Amino acid sequence: MVRVAHLTKQVTTGDSKLTILRDVSFTIAAGEAVAVIGASGSGKSTLLGLLAGLDTPTAGTVAVDGEDLFALDEDGRAALRGRLLGFVFQSFNLLPAMTALENVMLPLELAGIPDAAAVARESLTRVGLAARLTHYPKQLSGGEQQRVAIARAFVTRPSLLLADEPTGNLDAATGAEIIQLMFDLNREYGATLILVTHDAELSQRCGRVLHLAGGMLQP
Amino acid sequence: MSLGGEIALALRLLARDWRAGELTLVAIAVVVAVASVTTVGFFADRVNQALSRQANQLLGADLVVSADRPLDAQFAAEAERRGLRVTRMLRFPSMAAANEQNVLAEIKVVSAGYPQRGELRIADTLYGPDRRAAAIPAAGTVWVDDKLYTRLQLQPGDAVEVGQSRFPVGAIITQEPDSAVGFINAGPRVMLNEADLAATGLVQVGSRIRYRVQVAGAAGAVDAYRDWVAARLTPGQRVESIQDARPEIRSALQRAEQFLSLAALLSVVLAAVAIALAARRFLQRHLDACAMMRCHGASQGKVVRLYVLQFIALGCLASLAGCAAGLLAQHVLALWLGSLVTVELPGAGPRPAVHGFVTGLALLLGFALPPLLALGRVSTLRVLRRDIGAPGGMGLLGYALGATVIGALVIWKAGDLRLGSLVFGGFALAMLVAGVTAWGVIVAVSRLRSVGVSWRFGIANLRRRRFASVLQVVALGIGVMALLTLTIIRGELLQLWKASLPPDAPNRFIVNIQQEQIPALNRFFAEQRITMPEVYPMVRARLTRINERPVASADYADDRARRLVDREFNLSWATRLQRDNLLVAGRWWESSRSAATSFRWRTASHVRSTSSWAMC
Ligand SMILES: Nc1ncnc2c1ncn2[C@@H]1O[C@H](COP(=O)(O)OP(=O)(O)O)[C@@H](O)[C@H]1O
Ligand SMILES: [Mg+2]
């Protein structure tokens, strides 16, 4: 599902060059659940951004579902994201001007899927928020917001779900619920999951763990 | 996704942003700008229409060529060749007789199709109900007005003698266009079909006949014809069209319209500033939405299209609302200024609404388009790293489009490149000065190091948001400048207006007061607590001799002089020179030592006389 080869990312800040990722290579099979762990600043988010084609690497390649991401242009990568990928973020990234339902509808609407409202309602019901459809993000708790985000991530039936510290802004109990929900849905839909976290315990639930330190993959 | 699908989605996004209050400021700015432009536009349009209608009514046509000799056939032929409608008319004074009585009447000979503008109304019985005349008097009959009807003591079925013929009276005229404007000339009238003119035997050498060719049609064709005629006029021929009518009201209206347009324009400039600021805010607040959309697979182009469509829809709706508000507001304006404009105002035409609509849309897109285009370039990485800000690179250049739009609007509204450029240049200069000053102050303030913590914090904040701060100062400066300009211009205009009329210029004239009516008039003014205005005597007279030499029109080569000699004058007399009368030659009499007269300068210069005139 995902094939990463010699991925390197350097950024220039002022007059110094900073290497965030150094020669990272790995392969993830379809249906796998993989945790990416590492200290803060070790390059986890940067790696995730590259896997999603949100950013471009300095060197190396990423292939998702057999397609070389960086052989595509910006719009080509966007189209691929729309087709294959789902996202869950640390800070939820819900749009404040839209209700829970509308936030979940947005990916469907952008894809031009008819009946977006019905599909989105179903997805929100699945995450236990059937009663909060018309609530705005700021009227929801952190846990509820992340549930909306999960509903939004799964509503397009992605084959690859990327999650960047989804429990980072939640208390332990809520975080555990969210993780449970994500794993449940992942099993239901048979998606591949790449979960970025610095929680060692959480990583144990995944089939495989990739350990990043100083931008390099630890054996 | 089809364009239709994108439009539908853009409308849904618009509804969501609207509900969340993201667009309220932008919408209000557009509504205000469009409303102020259309208010002025609608009002001016109504008054202009009213004036044109009135003027057409006065002329009975769009254009009239007149002469005191038969007009060359080429005038009518050319007008017909240009697709204009043509009618002929001639008028002259003559005696009308019936029941052994004679009355000096004005005979008006008309051709089929008269009147082309305005309304001719007739009644079957004296003071009976009237109706719009469907045609001109049938050949062999005449129509007369109520004055002639009563003076000749006519009865239904009576006939009137004009020249060598007798005509049964077909109807009584209650209203006709092109009646002489002066109240004194509105004598009894007889209207005759042109087929009957020869039978009267009144057209002879020496007859005082005014010939008119009346023309009506499309405005452009009439204007072109006017130019054609103007180049071919010989002495004694005249061309009149609606532009010549009511110049005093027209110039007042023009001034008012100029002032109001300028005021509207200033509100447009203010709205532009508001839109620019609001669009910046919109950009800042939609970075996440754009990044998310790109995450969900939307291409750059699609994101931009969705937002541009959203703003076009917003612009259309806000402009429509602005037009509606303008339509309401012009009613208020019409009530306010109603005392200035005594004519009945017709309904407003659609053109001001179109102008307002275009203004609103151009304004919104001019200022919102650059930030919206920038939205497409939002880094998708923003979903992971919140610190990635708005795409840069537009800067001041982003406002170039807006500035161009404003410049074009100003020049369009000023209707004059020089004036428009001046206004626009003034604003640009003011913006530059405000911007540079604000920038300088921020730089200078950030140099102050050794001050308290809160100060340092504030200054750091200011410096970080330098561009936004400068923008705010400029916006405030423009607002103040707009208000100041308006205040000054308003004062100047009113001053100008007042200066063009003496403060004690009369509003009304009362004429034809008989000697025995003066006490009653005095009582009326006393009751109304108005000081009795001076009453001036007036008699009509004809010029008979200059320096004991008899005067005859044949002695003068100049047509105007001839007409003046033939004409009756209105004479008045006084012992004191009026304050607003200017003595251009000679001197005022000191005592009643001898009789003397004064003349309107133009009259005297035509008849060329400098000494005493005799009148009878
Ligand atoms: N565009 C960039 N410019 C400068 N520094 C960056 C950029 N992207 C990431 N970094 C730095 O690279 C390091 C890794 O960042 P990140 O991938 O977010 O780490 P993690 O998610 O593991 O905490 C951090 O020190 C971060 O500040
Ligand atoms: Mg991170």
Write structural notes for this entry.
The complex is a heterodimer of chains A (219) and B (616). By secondary structure, chain A is of the alpha/beta class. Chain A has 7 helices and 10 strands. In chain A, strand 4 and strand 5 form a beta hairpin. In chain A, helix 3 packs parallel to helix 5 (142-154). The model of chain A has no long low-confidence stretch (mean pLDDT 92). Chain B contains 17 helices and 15 strands. Chain B is α+β, with helices and mostly antiparallel strands. Chain B folds into 4 domains: 3-53 and 250-415, no CATH class; 60-248, no CATH class; 434-500, no CATH class; 510-615, no CATH class. In chain B, helix 7 packs antiparallel against helix 11 (398-414), helix 9 runs antiparallel to helix 10 (351-375) and helix 12 (417-447) packs antiparallel against helix 13. Chain B has helices spanning 3-19, 24-59, 73-81, 146-151, 197-200, 219-230, 247-285, 287-295, 300-336, 351-375, 398-414, 417-447, 453-464, 466-499, 518-527, 559-566, 601-607, and strands spanning 63-67, 85-98, 101-110, 121-123, 130-132, 142-145, 159-162, 165-175, 189-193, 210-216, 237-241, 539-546, 549-550, 568-571, 613-615. In chain B, the strands form 2 sheets. In chain B, strands 2-3-9-6-8-7 form a 6-stranded mixed β-barrel. In chain B, strands 12, 13, 14 and 15 form a 4-stranded antiparallel beta sheet that branches. Classes of the chains: A alpha/beta (219), B alpha+beta (616). At the A-B interface, helix 1, helix 2 and helix 3 of A face helix 1, helix 8 and helix 9 of B. Bound molecules: adenosine-5'-diphosphate (ADP) and magnesium ion.
Bound ions, cofactors and other small molecules, one mention each: adenosine-5'-diphosphate, magnesium ion
- Using only C-alpha atoms, the radius of gyration of chain B works out to 35 Å
Give the number of helices of chain B.
17
Question: How big is the Rg of chain A?
Answer: 17 Å
Annotation, overall tally of beta strands of chain A: 10
Model regions low in confidence, pLDDT < 50 over at least 5 residues of chain A: none
Mean of pLDDT of chain A: 92
Stretches with pLDDT under 50, minimum 5 residues of chain B: 180-185, 609-616
Largest sheet of chain B: 6 strands, mixed, barrel
Q: Please give the share of residues in helix of chain B.
A: 40-55%
Give the strand order of the largest sheet of chain A, numbering strands 1, 2, ... along the chain.
6-7-8-3-9-10
Strand order of the largest sheet of chain B: 2-3-9-6-8-7
Q: Tell me the helix content of chain A.
A: 25-40%
Largest interface: A-B, 33 and 29 residues
Share in β-strands of chain B: 5-15%
Give the N-terminus to C-terminus distance of chain A in angstroms. 21 Å
Shape of chain B: elongated
Total discrete domains of chain B = 4
